[in-house]
Amino acid sequence: MKQLVLTLAGIFFSQAVVLCAQGASHSEPTEYIEPATVPSALSLHVGQSLVLRVYASGYQVYQCGTAEGSPTWILSGPDANLFDGKRNLVGSHFATSGSPTWRLNDGSEITAKKVAAAPSPDGSAVPWLMLTVSAHSGKSGLLNEVTTVQRVNTSGGLAPASGCDANHQGRITKSPYSAEYYFSK
């Protein structure tokens, strides 16, 4: 009997998770999220609260172009999957018209712009960022009330040190990266 109750409880919990993932209107996280430990320039404002934390794994995409008259790798944007703490796929991260965008499986979507950066403690990784949401789109979901995004605990993602010259203009390269993203309101 005890095993039956535990099995039924597990089924109920699984169904609740599926309902949330399918777009049930639930704007609060179901578990406590420890705030990111960040440099002061990337800290949340007083009164802001965390909505969601995800883990990104994918690429920073660069295109060989010209800046200030010299060939250089120019960031096109991210191409990454987003995962929850149990490594379930919960969304994607990409660029829309050059701006970073996050879309969750619940259909909610935000686009943001960088307002602050700090070097990653891992010198071979892209910087940590503070971004302000500039647009909400998609369906009603977890990202609807988000106003701030923090990118922390980055690994990899830097542009190659070579390979972009006058003979390789337009060439695209992908640099593997991972990061944690904290979404706050």
Quick overview:
The chain has 185 residues and is mainly beta.
What labels would you give this structure?
185 residues, mainly beta, eight-stranded antiparallel barrel, 8 strands
Q: How would you sum up this structure, described in words?
A:
This protein is mainly β and 185 residues long. It has one domain (28-184). It has one helix and eight strands. It has an eight-stranded antiparallel β-barrel. A hairpin with a 3-residue loop joins strand 4 (99-104) and strand 5. The longest helix is centred in the N-terminal third of the chain and has 20 residues, at 2-21. The termini are far apart.
Topology diagram in text:
Elements: H1 2-21, E1 50-67, E2 70-83, E3 89-96, E4 99-104, E5 108-118, E6 128-138, E7 148-156, E8 172-184
Antiparallel strand pairs: 1-2, 1-8, 2-3, 3-4, 4-5, 5-6, 6-7, 7-8
Strand tally: 8
Q: What string gives the helices and strands in order?
A: HEEEEEEEE
Helix content: 10-25%
How many angstroms separate the termini? 44 Å
Structural class: mainly beta
Strands in their spatial order, largest beta sheet: 1-2-3-4-5-6-7-8
Rg over CA atoms: 19 Å
- Total of helices: 1
Shape: globular
Give the DSSP E fraction (strand runs of 2 or more residues).
Answer: over 45%
Mean pLDDT: 85
Q: Largest beta sheet, briefly?
A: 8 strands, antiparallel, barrel
Low-confidence stretches: 1-30
- When the domains are counted, the total is 1
